[in-house]
Amino acid sequence: MPRFDAAGLVTAVVLDHASGHLLMVAHMDAEAIAETRATGLAHFHSRSRGRLWMKGESSGHVLKVIEIRVDCDQDALELRVEAAGPACHTLAASCFYRRLTPEGGLERIQD
Known about the structure:
By secondary structure, this protein is mostly beta strands.
């Protein structure tokens, strides 16, 4: 098992299995890891809702987990997934669809 922080969470970085593109970053607790392993679909711990949630539970844009990797310090996970639609709730392919401009603003980028 990974090493959880004081809140019982571990950071989970989600990558598209085929392309390697970064899709999203979330947090998992032991329950989320167990549900992910049991179902093959990515589950996370929502800090704002204070509960377990399955990615795509309302949108249908689930993440099929191909592989879970653990980093060298065991304090972060990498989920390699096949996405059934956009990963971001804004309907962008990735949650990382903006960059900082030299002026300090945000600029939308194309995937």
